[in-house]
Amino acid sequence: MAGHSQELAQLSLIEVGKRIADSEISPVEVTRNALDRLEMYGSALGATTQILADEAISSARRAEREIGGGDYRGPLHGVPIGIKDLADVEGAITTAGSDVFGNRPASSDASLVQLLKKAGAVIVCKLNCDEFAYHPTGATSRHGPSRNPWNLDIVSGGSSGGTGAAVAAGLIYAGLGTDTGGSIRLPSALCGLVGIKPTYGRVSLHGVRLLSPSFDTPGPMARTTMDAAVMLRAMADPLTEEMVGEANRMVHIASEIDAGLEGIRIGVPSNYFFDALEPEISSIVQNAIDALVMLGAEQVQVELESVDRLAAAQLGILTLEAYQNVMAATDGDITRVNSTLRARLKDGMDASMRSGEDLLVALGRLRAERDDALAGYRRATGNVDVLVAPVLQRSPPTVEAARTDYQWMPNLTRPFNASHQPVISVPCGWTKVGLPVGLQIVAPKYRERTAIRVAYTYEQSQHAPERRWPSVPVEV
């Protein structure tokens, strides 16, 4: 039975969804297997804050009846997934990795959870995250740190660290992340997953705890590009669909996925993103870029003169908005949150505000600085279909060192929060010590399908890194 459990867990979301649709396995069987694995490995990984066993089994039985009655809703129907503990799930507590919100269960689902349930997904757990989703390591939650399935001494990445750990270890088939400065892409890269930060506004924030509403972006994390695309399609906000128009409707998210890379112009930044890489990471990323060219893409060097100013403005806005939200949630008593969060807010406020400057005035100034830097960035990138860049500059810190060695981690991700562009992080190689490396593929706003096309073509090619599976012990 244990072997079958592992075999079932290692299927992709698409694969398990097809077996459910073909009645080869039942949603109840798949859900029980996920719950067993969550109980067995979730604690060692620090992956979950709540396991929703009763609700999950009830949903799986309902999915089984619906599918048996001919009401099949698509590849998510009957498949177990998890929700980052920032988004409300009716009947479950939303902690945001903190203890300041109390223990009252949510009275309704977040909009994105409603949409995932409408697609038939089975919600089996709430997933651990850094307190207030305000750290890039996964190590600052009040529920304890999330750990990397490839090495439990290493961080899983934040703030969606629980999602990264749970999906990579095969406890669930996909999970929700959110990305304000890199919090989908960092854990995806560190755990060997595909993560999509959609265009800002693509997915509703209704029912999601806010950190920095100028940048907060929910999105999927999964083990393959198509798995992530399927989850994104389900959770996209219908109101946003109407606003962006027929040409960009998310129903077309996979319409170009098999088109290959002929005619695609790949922009490779000549500055900032490759300036301070560890040699091993630089080599792995460059090999992936070379592979894209061999697959038919045209490589174009792009100089991004304003990207450092874009990143700085994003950090300033994020910090000031985070300060406002933390102060509101704690009734002004910032001592109620962890010391690392407090120190990060203080340092950020000191760096972002001028002497005697009002907070709202500082926000207005920083937003103007972002707009100016963004104009230059857009001019520089206007002639390419996607940009490619590493996710991280160097190897991740240990869990023990994570509260002091973290400031560098979002350096390469935050510019694309500032630009509101969709980004997909895809695995592109393995270090000598067996940790995965991630590549960012950045598309113009509302062009998720272009980034997905590039990621999928690379993933399906002979140039993609070999598939591996972590060996997760029951105890740390």
Would you summarize the structure shown here?
The protein is of the alpha+beta class and 476 residues long.
Series of H and E elements:
HHHEHEHEEEHEHEEHHEHEHHHEHEEH
Binned, the helix content reads 25-40%
Characterize the largest beta sheet: strand count, sense, and whether it forms a barrel: 8 strands, mixed
In angstroms, what separates the terminal alpha carbons? 24 Å
Second rung of CATH, namely the architecture of the largest domain: Alpha-Beta Complex
Strand order of the largest sheet: 6-8-7-12-13-11-9-10
Assembly category: single chain
Proportion of residues in extended strands: 5-15%
- Cα gyration radius (Å): 21 Å
- Described by the principal axes of the CA atoms, the overall outline is globular
Low-confidence residue ranges? none
* Count of individual helical segments: 15
Quick one: how many beta strands? 13
The structure class reads: alpha+beta
CATH fold assignment of the largest domain: Amidase signature (AS) enzymes
* Number of self-contained structural domains: 2
In CATH, what is the class of the largest domain?
Alpha Beta
What do you see in this structure?
The chain has about 475 residues and is an alpha+beta fold. It folds into two domains: about 400 residues, Alpha-Beta Complex (Amidase signature (AS) enzymes); about 60 residues. The chain has an eight-stranded mixed beta sheet. Helix 3 packs antiparallel against helix 4 and helix 11 packs across helix 12.
Helix and strand topology:
Blueprint: H1 2-9, H2 13-21, H3 27-45, E1 48-51, H4 53-68, E2 80-84, H5 111-118, E3 122-127, E4 147-148, E5 151-155, H6 161-168, E6 174-179, H7 185-191, E7 194-197, E8 217-222, H8 225-235, H9 238-244, E9 265-269, H10 279-294, E10 298-302, H11 307-329, H12 339-352, H13 359-381, E11 386-390, H14 414-418, E12 423-430, E13 436-442, H15 448-459
Parallel strand pairs: 2-3, 9-10, 9-11
Antiparallel strand pairs: 1-3, 4-5, 6-8, 7-8, 7-12, 11-13, 12-13
